[in-house]
DNA sequence: TATTGTTATACTCTATAACTATA
DNA sequence: TATAGTTATAGAGTATAACAATA
């Protein structure tokens, strides 16, 4: 009886590929973003905070998949650097509404530019159609898994 | 002067997509692999060890992007469970050649089966062409970034 | 001198439990 | 009673420094 499958080599393992692609993009982004004093994770927090409705810490965390205890330290850091500010919600005084300062908006705008540039460089080895297809596929996978929770 | 770019929403950020896709696959795989007593990372170690040439701990780590201090604990765990064994290289007595035990080969075979199944389920929302294109794109990105180091 | 494996240590990230203030 | 924020703490995962054995 012959072996049905040889072990899949590393380079074809989806888990390996996703992990290493993520790691490498994160490192490249961190380098590109360093001059602006934020990393990719913090920039994503700024993006969520910049959205239309005012959000509490927990609501920001929910959109990012970050729990509330982690949010405290994350917001602390951004507030120390003057990028965001907490203010009590008048309607529910348990909640901290988190808002961008002027410096935060500036950091967001310039950080986003840098992040786009880092992504563009990262995707450079792919042609336009391949890159678009990659993003579409990841969107489907992340959305599917989320709704199946 | 109009703003050139609105901040990219989370779902179009490559960093967010890669991180969450990786996380979700890792969790699904861990669940699928749990009955076999290994996680995806450990299974990848078994795959590397199962390769043709006998490898030392450092050589196994190099292929996985894991440093030698991390390898010690990783191999300790696998050895405690009787899946691998260390033996001194006769040619260079500084090196531990790591080999699979019979139980390790069995675990590898059955774990690989389970991992393939988990990947298949994870990719199910994509059609065959989309899934193949995703894997190809990731391979290009990981290979490119590695050679640029 | 350099390399392999090892240990101890530290640092990041994340999660859990318990507290407070509000509802 | 439940929820938002906070703190302290603990657990993974990973990285650095120093040491013993060997080359």
Automatic annotation (TrEMBL), chains A, B:
SMART domains: HTH_MARR. Signal peptide: none annotated. Keywords: DNA-binding, Transcription, Transcription regulation. Coiled coil: none annotated. It comes from the Bacteria. Residues 11-143 form the HTH marR-type domain. This is MarR family winged helix-turn-helix transcriptional regulator. It comes from Streptomyces yaanensis.
